[in-house]
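Re: that chain you flagged

S.,

Sorry for the slow reply, it's been a week of failed gels. I finally had a moment to sit down with the sequence you sent. For the record, here it is as I used it:
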Amino acid sequence: KYKYVMQMFAPGVTPSRAKNKLHDLQVTFNVRFFQHMFMGSERVMKFFKVPPSKAHVTGVGVEAIEYQDRMFESLDLVYLGALSNRYVHESVEGFARFFQANKGRIRMSYKIIGGGVPEAVKLVEVSIAAAGPEVPVQYLGRLDDSDLISVFRTSNIGVVYNRVTPYYTNNISTKLYEYLLSGLPVIAVKNNSMLGVVTPSNGVLIEDSSEGFEQGLHTLLANLGNFNSKAIAQSGEECSVKTVVRDRMIPAFQKIISEAK
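Prediction finished late last night. Pasting the structure tokens below so you have them in one place:
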């Protein structure tokens, strides 16, 4: 006798309300035909109105990009992820203002890794050009694993940036946990999925604007001496692959199998 499990991590996350609505209606319709569902979070479960009797909240398992004990004597930022519909250029604008106000006070850099539609890439490139050659921001595009790890080894702050929109309100940021498990504190735009995860001991939550990003950097600078990579990595452990599989998925499968006997 077979038991089928449906897995769902997030609602539709495109800029198109129509596409998101269609996606979410399809998921809601499909829920009716499954007795067991693995869900990314309780918020996602409630969003799709999945009965608790069907839901197994497993989280999203991720791994560190490259863990190491970081030195927090500088602000070396890294953004890793898609650029499309993220408005990452606003973080560049905020960083540029912060740099001009604090240059000479502390060493700083900002590296952006990832790709996207040409319009999104252009916005980032234009913002870097507007900042001027003095401001240490680099757009590196897509990198292979070895080059990506090299960048992470020289970074000590992870950037999670996107506009807060209806389709990102409950979105689980896998990059957030990849940064934390790598021992990097984060500067992250505040949304529902970040609340209770990002704290003063592992980063700062900000508003989704260049001004919010700039202010967040001031907060990080003031708190820089209090960060500890081991403690930061432990704060992301709940979403590590090891924890998700061992503590949530295996017990869920065992329950499903026992019910099938």
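What I noticed first: The chain has a mean pLDDT of 90.

Talk soon,
D.
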